[in-house]
């Protein structure tokens, strides 16, 4: 959609899905994101009468999250292309809400991954209204929990903050996940990445599906942040929380492989989402430059502004090309090329930040005002350089994959 729309080989059905996502982003996500961003107290974002719940309800009504279950699309490049376009549109609308909606499906994904009927019935049945979260970050561990190929990952000197211990037919979970868990204070089910044997650092981990209404689960306050304020994040505490052994869906033997696969998917998704943020910043800047008059003419007529706009356009299109290629590949087969996904995530989030920064420059003093949209885009993009692994650490992980 918009001035950078040069899609080819799209069927009418594909275009209708993209247009539906764009309409939802324009009419629901942008207005809601603006309202939620301006709430001084992050607790108000998740209050009962918050517009946040309307966003969830309207998104469920679209049926876009059901695309991944369509037998005609599963495992095809077409599905990846459609999902990439949808993610870009949602990021264009509001990146924080896009991430919140995306992470909702984590528990259902893991339930389907194993193909166990009892897990599918509990966590991924049609009409399931669970709100999921990806609980991996810990108070004393951030991007290091994603650094699978770094020496410290298996160091016994590293002590996990959340440990699950086998007890008969159950696992007992003790510890805490950090305030950066997306959907942390509103999720009904956690996809919990935890440690099973702390003697080997982060290596011997597990992935559990944990209903968050169990005894012993408590939450912290919603996090008050610079950007992506519409994305609820907060701590989760586990005090002798007991789950059936079958809810531990990944054991230590497969943990590293599965964790790397999940990061590959998540980083690819971040890439396409923040192409949408870059596109939004570019489109806002272009429209403003065509309207704003300085020196007796619209500022778009000044060469310095023209050059900035073309650079923004070029950066956004380059990011889209990389993000789309990586996302389509990972959607059509088992995600395995982590270095490509990290390249997409780091390049596209940096592009979103750079393009939003230039947009603020083109707006001049107005760019600093909350009356205009670009300062929010700059704050939202800045958060993306840290989340799902900070770009510096991710780059080191990817570099070691290449060497």
Low-confidence stretches: none
Give the spatial strand order of the biggest sheet.
Answer: 1-4-5-8
User: What's the rounded overall pLDDT mean?
Assistant: 93
Assigned CATH class of the largest domain: Mainly Alpha
The CATH architecture category of the largest domain equals Up-down Bundle
CATH fold topology of the largest domain:
Butyryl-CoA Dehydrogenase, subunit A, domain 3
Query: How many domains is the backbone divided into?
Result: 3
Largest sheet: 4 strands, mixed
First and last CA, distance: 39 Å
Instruction: Please give the radius of gyration in angstroms.
Output: 21 Å
Q: Structural class of the secondary structure composition?
A: alpha+beta
Estimate the strand proportion. Answer: 5-15%
Shape: globular
Question: Would you kindly provide a brief summary of this structure?
Answer:
With 403 residues, the protein is an alpha+beta fold. Helix content is 50%, strand content 13%.
Topology:
Blueprint: H1 12-37, H2 42-45, H3 51-62, H4 77-93, H5 95-103, H6 106-114, H7 117-123, E1 132-135, E2 162-167, E3 170-177, E4 189-195, E5 205-211, E6 217-219, E7 236-244, E8 248-250, H8 252-291, E9 293-294, E10 297-298, H9 303-332, H10 338-363, H11 374-384, H12 391-402
Parallel strand pairs: 1-4
Antiparallel strand pairs: 2-3, 3-7, 4-5, 5-8, 6-7, 9-10
Helix pairs in contact: 1-3, 1-4, 4-5, 4-8, 4-9, 6-7, 8-9, 8-10, 8-11, 9-10, 10-11, 10-12
